[in-house]
Design goal:
With 292 residues, this protein is α/β, with parallel strands linked by helices. The chain is built from ten helices and twelve strands. The relative contact order is 0.16. Bound molecules: N,N-dimethyl-L-histidine. The site of N,N-dimethyl-L-histidine has 12 residues, from helix 9.
Length: 292
């Protein structure tokens, strides 16, 4: 979560618009082309529900669903959760204008705190959305635990709509994390700059090299920063960290999954996987799981 200060948010926006970074476009295609099918699966037998989005951002993808659900006169409230208070006030103000009739309660805070708060506001059926393959930014064990934690905040019959990036040609994956414009590189270096700004450190970002890797066997796409020289970095004027030349800093994992692995993760967390919605290239899936 530390990647996403104001600069990191801007860099991630740029990344989503760059040629090589495919996940956002794939998921947008799913949401724009399969809107009715996704919504009908969510609406089910028609009981009122709370549509809760974990990490809503600008809600571009969910807006497709919200619009369709309003047209169908579905009885639902939209509860976007985000760690950024700017995001939540933006959504609270803009969405009721672009989507008249939408009941929205934005919740600013950490996912599980806000999920508890959502339960205290209403006892309606819950449909949780966790999009963008954010699940991939956790190591597999932590991702499985996260799904179990989500399940523990739900009742049988509640749903999870989860967006997951799939294993594919390794060159396609690697290129997405090694774009020619160098946006991913700046996205990673921004974390060092953030430490400089907020923790009064003195990283020289020119002395670190962006090194992305993808292992097609495990599906782990990992980014590292490699120290170009022997160097000392001071943090808060107190702690000194010594890097030897070629030493690495592990920055981020973006795990890729097979459809079978996703279904197994659902079952392990006491969900039943009931549907997959794929983009035309089968590079990404939005899966629907029902809490058992
Ligand atoms: C937000 N998350 C799913 C992105 C990803 O693909 O792992 C973050 C990202 N990091 C580098 N590029 C994009």
């Amino acid at each position: 979560m530390y990647f996403y200060d104001a600069n990191g948010d801007k860099l991630f926006q740029d990344l989503m618009n760059c040629e090589e970074y495919y996940p956002t476009n794939c998921e947008l295609e799913i949401f724009s082309e399969k809107t009715a099918d996704i919504c009908n699966a969510i609406i089910g037998s028609g009981d009122p529900f709370d549509l809760i989005e974990l990490g809503a951002g600008d809600a571009t993808k969910s807006t497709y669903l919200l619009k369709y659900l309003l047209e169908q006169k579905a009885d639902f409230n939209y509860l976007p959760i985000d760690i950024s208070s700017n995001v939540i006030s933006y959504l609270n103000i803009t969405l009721p204008v672009t989507l008249p009739g939408l009941n929205i309660t934005g919740l600013n805070g950490e996912y599980f705190d806000m999920l508890k708060k959502a339960s205290s506001i209403s006892g309606r059926r819950k449909v949780i959305m966790f999009l963008g393959s954010n699940i991939g930014n956790m190591p597999v064990d932590a991702a499985e635990q996260f799904c179990m934690d989500v399940r523990n905040h739900l009742s049988p019959g509640d749903m999870l709509l989860i967006g997951v990036d799939l294993k594919k040609n390794p060159k396609t994956v690697l290129a997405a994390y090694n774009d020619k414009e160098g946006i991913t590189k700046r996205f990673n270096l921004n974390l060092l700059e953030r430490i400089n700004r907020e923790l009064n450190a003195n990283f020289d970002v020119n002395q670190f090299e962006h090194y992305p890797t993808y292992d097609p066997e495990t599906g782990a796409c990992k980014s590292y920063l490699i120290s170009k020289a022997d160097q000392d970095v001071r943090i808060n004027g107190m702690e000194t960290i010594h890097f030897v030349k070629d030493e690495y800093i592990f920055m981020e994992i973006s795990q890729k999954f097979t459809v079978q692995q996703i279904d197994q993760m659902a079952i392990k967390a006491s969900f039943k996987p009931i549907a997959h919605f794929f983009d035309s290239k089968h590079w990404f899936t939005d899966a629907i799981w029902v809490a058992q």
